[in-house]
Predict the structure.
Amino acid sequence: MSSISRDLPKTFEDRYEALALARNKRDSLAANPLTAATNTRLDAIWTEITNKRIALVNAKATYNGNTVAKNTAGTALRLLNSHFIQVFNFGVARGKYPKAHRDFYTLPLEDSPLPDFTKDKDALKWGAYIVEGDALRVAAGGLPMSNPDALEMDTAKNLFHTLFTNQSTFKDALDNAQEALEALEPETDKVVRKIWDEIETHYNEETEESRRDNCREWGVVYITVGDQKTLSGTVTYNGAPGAGLQVRFKRGRNISIVTAAGGYALSTNLMDAQKIVVEKLDENDDVIKTWEFEITLNESGDKTENFTVND
């Protein structure tokens, strides 16, 4: 048996939208049905959320901008690390540099595979080994290196070190901005609930359908729920199984992480038209890309839906 109930916000986007709709509706009316106390709380929390949201947007833009610059500088440093060691090894093979000079760079005496520069800290570590070691080698009478030379190596290492250090600072600022916004959730939820209570009371002499229609204009969200059911299927990402992506109902708490084979499953009692969100996360579990799909659920019965997403 289906039933209709209010669905309070569960995400920041939902909370922000609920407050925005309530303020816009209130400000469009000559007669305001909200109490003075609720109006004051609405304006106060709206100002706080707006300011914290702007701070978060700025922090995220700074962090993401530095990420691009850091990754570019990291690629350049890894390439120079690789070229420097390879060119030096060729010089050793030709007899231009003594084999013993490999010690200056902490390289094994005998020729060996290139070190692994994949991780940022390793790229920086080997960049420092090369720059510091080359100065010691030249001071000991070794011929200067070229293509790349020590100056080019030092410039690339210093740039990447600066951006790498900034990344940690910007990540802390981003986390702080996110936490500051999340700290407003309890008061936001109380204000939204208070507004919805007062608006439903204001329209309580109308028919149920008319009351809900009027309340929706104030941002009140109603959902129809039925029997428990499972939504499942596959996610294809850029032509391959979308392993690691996450799938959720836009209005819901359950999340399904896509398996290696591309499968997902969500348990729900929602019904009728619903929005499904597929999200791509970065290494810090921050959402970096979102796709939305609309589906329809029956009152009872499992459902299969497959989604295809592309960058």
Summary: The longest helix spans residues 36-94. Helices lie at 12-27, 36-94, 120-139, 150-182, 185-202, 208-216. The chain has a mean pLDDT of 95. The beta strands are 3-6, 222-237, 240-241, 246-249, 255-257, 263-270, 272-281, 287-297, 303-304, 307-309.
